[in-house]
Structure formats: C-alpha cells, structure tokens
Amino acid sequence: MADTNTIYPEDAVLLNAYLDGELDPAACAKFERRLGLEAGLRAERERLDALRQALAGALHKETASDRLRARISNIGAPAAIARPVVGRRSFDWIQMAAAVLLTAGLSSVLTFQLIAPDRSLVAPAALVAVHQRALLAATPVDVVSTDRHTVKPWFDRHVALSPPVVDLAADGFSLLGGRIDMLDGKSVPVMIYQHREHLVSLVAAPAPGARDGGAPPVRTTRDGFTALTWTTTDFQLTAIADVAAADLETFVARWRAAPAPG
After folding, report:
1. pLDDT the model gives residue 262
2. 185-225 residue pLDDT tens
3. What is the pLDDT confidence band of residue 95, given thresholds at 50, 70 and 90?
4. CB atoms < 10 A from the CB of 246, how many?
5. Is the pLDDT of residue 43 over 90?
6. For residue range 231-255, what is the model confidence (pLDDT) as tens digits?
7. How far apart (Å, rounded) are the C-alpha atoms in residues 84 and 127?
8. What is the pTM of this model?
9. Residues 204/189, Cβ–Cβ less than 8 Å
C-alpha cells in the first residue's frame, strides 16, 4: 500500500498546478479526491497556503509615480520615440521592466517543462499502480482470451486508439487477455501476460506520432516492481512485473522483434 504521508515530485507539480488553477475540471476533481484521502498531500497543501498568505502579507503593492504614468500615456507618440528621456531614474525603471519580463519568460518556460507531458519520462508511481490494481482485482483482465484476434477487436471497441497485440506464448509469455485502466486521468489499454507464476502488465499509453527508434527501454523500479518503457508506433509501452529484470528485458525484446500483427 502506498504511503499517504509521502510527497513525490510528480505530486508536488500537480499540487502547484492545482493551487494555480491550471488543472482541467476532471483532473481537478480527481486531485481533490486524493487530497481527501492522503494526509501528506493535505499537509503540503496547508503549508503552501500558509506560505502564500505570508508572502502576500509581506509584499506591499507599489503604485506608479506621476512621471511613470505620464511616460506610459506617451508611449507611441512621435516625440517620445524621437526624443526618449534618458536619466538615472528612467534607466532604473527600464531595468526593472526588463527584469520583470525576463522573470516572467523564465517562469513560463519552467512551468511548461514541469506541467507539459513528456513521453520520454516514466511516472513510476502511476505505472506501478496500474499493475498493482490488476494484481488486486478479482480477475486481472476484462476480456479473457489467449487469442490476440479477440483481444485487439475488444480494445478497438473500448478506446479511441488501440495498440497492437502480440502473441508471445512460444517465448514463455502467455497472453491472458486485456483490460482498461486509468493513467493520468485517461483510459489506457493494458495487455496482461503470464510468465511462469508471475503476471506482466503491458500498459499502452497513446503517444500519436511516436515511433520505435530502437533505443533501449528506460528502466525504473518501485515497490519491488520493475518497469521497462519504450515507444512504438503511436504508443508509449511500459512492461511492469516483479520478475527478474533479465526476464522482463527478454519480454520486451521478443515483443519488439515480433512481426507486425496482421
């Protein structure tokens, strides 16, 4: 069970986006449910609220001087362009304005880098949670079938973009079926394979335009589970299991080397 008192980096980014009103309604509702359940997340929100209030009380609102108001009202006038007023005080205001614009630009870039989805990065907590839900469910699959020609059409009916389904029984990874789970607030297809007594979840997160460039999969570990992530046509695939890392690497290699399903 996840520690509800632990704040992970991805949770901190979501919390700041929530406080700034940057989440869409569905993501906002989902995050508020987490706030009601996770004490650590709730405490961090209270800390940030207190910090914001303290900063608001400490900062004083500056009012523009009459000289600055006059300069602003004259912006665009021919005389102002032809004969700019240069002096120490005006230079200070120009420096201040430049600093404000530079800070705002850097802040926007950093916010975009933190909030915008990056398909090359793995979110271990969310991915492992998908696999854990399969393990805890009464049945790990929604459609039970060892035939990819049954699982693939089932995905076609339940998600807008369905992944290829590969039969790896000959390599020791038997297809058990498929299921639909949630990842980052979106429905994603998950293929379930069995390797000896272990289950392997293959999560197919849509990534339109992605291609398999042949790069080695990105490995992450969390709570005793190993996750290997790579890209294929229009998808980011992540295989998750508690098998030996070498076995999971074999699964990924066989999956990538399999002929394109017809």
Report:
1. 58
2. 889 999 999 999 999 999 999 999 999 988 999 999 988 99
3. low
4. 8
5. no
6. 999 999 999 999 999 999 999 999 9
7. 59
8. 0.55
9. yes
Average pLDDT, the chain: 79
